[in-house]
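ARCHIVE CARD
Drawer: 12
Card no.: 0347
Subject: one protein chain, sequence and derived structure
Cross-reference: see card 0346
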Amino acid sequence: MHYNKKGGVSYIKTLIRNNYADILREIINAPVKGYDLVLNDFESTTAWACKLRNVPCIALGHQASFRHPETPRPRFKQWLGEAILRWYAPANRHIGFHFRSYTASIYPPVLRQEIRAVVPENKGHITVYLPAYHPSHLLPIFNALIPYTFHVFTKNVAQITYHQNVQLHPIHHENFTKSMSGSFGVLCGAGFETPAEALYLGKKLMVVPIRNQYEQLCNAAALRMEGVHVLHKLSKKSIPAINSWLQSAPLSPANYPDFTRELLFNLVNDIPLREV
């Protein structure tokens, strides 16, 4: 997917910049035939290769949760978005992860061990990760929210730069985890991993779903059910809403148990191995 500078998917860029001949060639050449089982996290090449060669494939990830009608959706469903979620990476079985176990085949989020080891603090700053927005769009908004300090993580800088009450940080997993664990609140897109980690750490959370990105609209609907603040467009007109969120009470930390080992053990033992 390719995005514009103001938080939306650019379908024209996405359509033009993908090489479909290479995609087809990779599907044909993917060496899945030598495997007894493929675990797939919404990756189309190996998923379609498995389907064409009758290799068992289990969809294991957040997108797999949308195969179940119990998973929250926005008020108005998008037929194209639903079609992508259904056909982009086909599988024989779907095991999903989501913010809540809406059905027996949906489990809580899988969290990084670095997050589980964190002792959360409140150092007063807001951690921001909005990769669909260019810093030039974000700075005038956050500069208007003094005295709050913002740590904005972006691919557009190579080192930390300072702009009044805003720090622009290069993308760095360890530094992002450190910033988020010590934050007063987290402002991010309506993806899955970062909101789940923020909820687990008990951080004040606001999400801005990427426009025209159906999965994020679905996530926003689910997060709103959890009491999370959702902002559908980020502009100078959003400043009062952000200020109101900053003054609101934080949520209680989410209880996401670590079940990964047991889940994978059960999945693998359900698949009969081929005779050699």
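Annotation on reverse: Residues 99 and 108 are 6 Å apart (CA to CA). The longest helix spans residues 214-225.
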